[in-house]
Amino acid sequence: MKKELKYQGFSLLELLVGLFLTGMLLLLWATSRPAQSPRMLLDNGAREIQARLYHARYHAVLGGQKVRISFNEGVCTTELYSAARNLWERKETRLIEGVHIEANNRPIFHPAGTVSNLATIRIINSAGEYRITLAISGRIRMTKV
């Protein structure tokens, strides 16, 4: 007489093998995708620039020091004003990939939270355009064009 085995569910080993194979397929899928779409690059670039402007404003207010932001060929540069040496010292330079940046001025954030050298910054790529405007009050406004 043969005993019949009743098999219900999966063993732990079968479950782990299944999870491993699923993970490998997800890894292959994630690495085969194009790096990023133009729309993602545009959105990320615009948010990065907006965040850098907010950071410069807060640094000026909290640090009591003028902060200037400049844009050139997709590079965002932050500079701090040294009153003792009467010059601008570079704090940070950051490449914003996948977008073209145009600015009509280099805004300067003051310790009072205001901005001089008002600027309009355009972030452009094949997916569209964002425009960031700075008001004298220090307001930073981003719109999708």
Q: What are the main properties of this structure?
A:
single chain, minor pseudopilin epsh fold, 32% helix, 34% strand, 4-stranded antiparallel beta sheet, 145 residues, 5-stranded antiparallel beta sheet, alpha+beta, 2 helices
The structure class reads: alpha+beta
* CA-atom Rg in angstroms: 26 Å
Give the proportion of residues in helices.
Answer: 25-40%
Q: Which CATH architecture?
A: 3-Layer(bab) Sandwich
Going by CATH, the homologous superfamily would be: minor pseudopilin epsh domain
Strand arrangement across the biggest beta sheet: 3-2-1-5-6
Enumerate how many helices there are, as a single number.
Answer: 2
Q: H/E element string?
A: HHEEEEEEEEE
How much beta, percentage-wise? 25-35%
Q: How many domain modules?
A: 1
CATH level 1 name: Alpha Beta
Can you summarize the main beta sheet?
5 strands, antiparallel
Described by the principal axes of the CA atoms, the overall outline is: elongated
Overall average residue pLDDT: 89
- End-to-end distance: 80 Å
Instruction: Examine the coordinates and then state which fold CATH places here, giving the name of the CATH topology.
Output: minor pseudopilin epsh fold
Secondary structure: number of strands: 9
At a glance:
The chain has 145 residues and is α+β, with helices and mostly antiparallel strands.
Structural notes for this entry:
The protein has 145 residues and is an alpha+beta fold. The chain has one domain: 3-Layer(bab) Sandwich (minor pseudopilin epsh fold), CATH 3.55.40.10. Helices cover 32% and strands 34% of the residues. The protein is built from two helices and nine strands. The chain has helices at 12-32, 38-63; strands spanning 67-72, 75-82, 87-95, 100-103, 108-109, 115-116, 120-125, 128-134, 140-144. A five-stranded antiparallel sheet has the order 3-2-1-5-6. A hairpin with a 2-residue loop joins β7 and β8 (128-134). The chain starts with 11 loop residues before the first helix and ends with a strand. The model has no long low-confidence stretch (mean pLDDT 89).
